[in-house]
Amino acid sequence: MYDWPATSLPEDMVLICTDPQSAVVKRTQLNSRVLAGAVLLELVQRSAITVDAKRITGVWPLPLGDPFAEAILADINRARPSRSSLRLSRWVDKASRKVDRAYLDRLTARGLLYARPRRLLGVFPSTTWTAVNPAWFVHLTARVDHAVRPEAYGPPTTSDLYLTALVGVTLSRRLYPGWDNRPLRRRISDPSHVNPIVNAVEQVLAADARRRSDD
Q1: What residues contact 177, with CB distance under 8 A and at least 6 apart?
Q2: CA-wise closest residue to 161 among 188, 134, 133
Q3: 14 contacts: CB under 8 Å, gap ≥ 6
Q4: Which of 104, 129, 183, 214 is the most exposed place for a label (fewest CB within 10 A)?
Q5: Per-residue model confidence as pLDDT tens digits over 168-194
Q6: Hey, how many other C-beta atoms are within 10 angstroms of the C-beta on 186?
Q7: What is the distance between the alpha carbons of residues 188 and 165, in angstroms, rounded to a whole number?
Q8: Other CB atoms closer than 10 Å to residue 126's CB: what's the count?
């Protein structure tokens, strides 16, 4: 049996965006707002922050072994303790900046992805990232499946519930396509209704969509 290396929620959200055949990370599936939510949920899971329905309520600047998450945690710790400065939607927005490249590079440094630089049309630099183990998509999808079918697999872990809630924002149709999977897509979105960070991600995505429609 393969011993899967420990991964954080942001790393899981990158790896679940790999193509099940080619193992290439599908950048079009990799949403920076959702990744930012994964960073904040990782901070909650590691007891570095606490939250209520709309705001960060407590901060503990712990060592995390993750430079990007530690930088966000330090920024939160330095923020003026006002109602607006600690809004979850504000930190989803702030954590979105350069988050995708940070975790692509981190997974590459860990040996879980490999990067292939190239030039489009021989001129424009581009990089593709590929999972070293092509089974990551299947492994992470199985964790989501266990979370949405507790009657078959037993109670899910907190990490799997968080992963499932994040997947429910933008990836549920990819994991469970088609008309017959509508009940599962509804179940996959259930964890988001009681998760304030995922709700904040959805609010920021909705604001992004409104801005695009106004342009």
Answers
A1: none
A2: 188
A3: 25, 30, 35, 100, 103, 104, 107, 113
A4: 214
A5: 999 988 888 888 888 888 888 776 557
A6: 13
A7: 7
A8: 11
Residue 83: pLDDT band (50, 70, 90) is low
Query: What pLDDT is recorded for position 183?
Result: 85
At 137, list the tokens: 């998509």
| Adjacent-strand bridge partners of 25 | 18
C-beta atoms surrounding 133 within 10 Å: 17
Q: How far apart are CA 181 and CA 149, in angstroms?
A: 13
Token pair for residue 18? 């790999």
| Average confidence (pLDDT) over 80-105 | 91
Query: How far, in Å, CA of 97 to CA of 1, rounded?
Result: 38
Q: How many CA atoms lie less than 13 Å away from 55 in the CB half-sphere?
A: 11
- How far apart are the C-alpha atoms of 13 and 24, rounded to whole Å? 14
